[in-house]
Amino acid sequence: MLIKIKRRSDILPSEITPPDVYEARRRFLRLGAGGMMTAAGLAALWPAAARANAKLPNVTKGPFSTREELTPYESVTVYNNFYEFGTDKEDPARLAASLKPRPWQVAIDGEVAKPGVYDVDDLIRLHVLQERVYRLRCVEAWSMVIPWVGRPLSEVIKRFEPTSRAKYLRFETLLDPQQFPGQRRRVLDWPYVEGLRIDEALHPLTLLAVGLYGEVLPNQNGAPIRLVVPWKYGFKSIKSIVKISLTEQQPLTSWAKSGPNEYGFYANVNPQVDHPRWSQARERRIGDLFKRDTAMFNGYADEVARLYAGMDLKKFF
Ligand code: MTE
């Protein structure tokens, strides 16, 4: 692996810490040194920290990280699937400035004792962010290795006290053709909707991400908050979430609606079940010349296979 050492002249203006971010970081350190930090103190840090490319403070290493070589930041942020901006891989990075990730609210409703509408900065607390390096396997048979920053979804959801009737989670992306030019074309039935069974949602691998590479999530990667479900095809990892509903019935998801024979609700990475139009046995890791074999559950079988014990995974694809 070639490691590029940056010379002073290589540093982009955008990499130089703006004074307000620097000041917020200093405040953060001062508060941290005192050992106590109030929720209000944390929230006050966000306006500076919420700027794309701002470093996220106080990120600890989380569990489940792979030691595989990381996909370069440049590939993670310019080769994207985010149809709200267009269907070409470069469209999201090119057009993402129209998305305004602050202020941003997320509604939690349905089968919970404590529904409500929350500011994204109250939903995700800065002091408990973890870095998790996960493989992401796209249904289009390419993959990446990405250092996400976020919190387990389970920790966030449990605060709203799911009722005994909550069997599934339904996630919705923002609907706003002003911010998402791709929504002016009916490529999908907008807004983008995804879903998980509740045990999948509460599994410790399932992450709500607010950053990558130690920085605030770039718009093209789903700012300000997105899902990451590493044992499932990438389309389950819904971006720019505005609503999470706990439901009794399995939700109808965007891709299952547009192509029920091609995209199942479970969408577990499975090299033995081909997509009707191509094989899923192998994949191309972005940056590699040669393809590699795809692993069952994207290599997370030890962690998640038990969730599907006794299920016919050809039927429930
Ligand atoms: N979420 C929304 N709202 N819209 C999308 O088009 N694409 C999905 C998923 N989440 C998509 C989305 C697909 S197909 C993939 S592979 C991943 O996002 C890609 O995430 P990345 O661009 O951050 O690598």
Helix and strand layout, with pairings?
Layout: H1 19-33, H2 39-49, E1 60-61, H3 73-78, H4 91-95, E2 105-110, E3 116-119, H5 120-123, E4 130-137, E5 142-152, H6 153-158, E6 168-173, E7 193-197, H7 198-201, E8 207-212, E9 215-216, E10 226-228, E11 241-247, H8 254-258, E12 282-285, E13 292-293, H9 301-304
Parallel strand pairs: 1-4, 2-11, 5-12
Antiparallel strand pairs: 2-3, 4-5, 5-8, 6-7, 6-11, 8-9, 8-10, 12-13
Ligand MTE binds at residues 80-84, 136, 138, 173, 192, 221-222, 234-235, 237-240.
Describe the structure.
- The protein is of the alpha+beta class.
- The chain has 9 helices and 13 strands.
- The chain is globular.
- The strands form 2 sheets. Strands 1, 4, 5, 8, 9, 10, 12 and 13 form an 8-stranded mixed sheet that branches. It has a 5-stranded mixed sheet with strand order 3-2-11-6-7.
- It starts with 18 loop residues before the first helix and ends in a 13-residue tail after the last helix.
- The protein has helices at 19-33, 39-49, 73-78, 91-95, 120-123, 153-158, 198-201, 254-258, 301-304, and strands spanning 60-61, 105-110, 116-119, 130-137, 142-152, 168-173, 193-197, 207-212, 215-216, 226-228, 241-247, 282-285, 292-293.
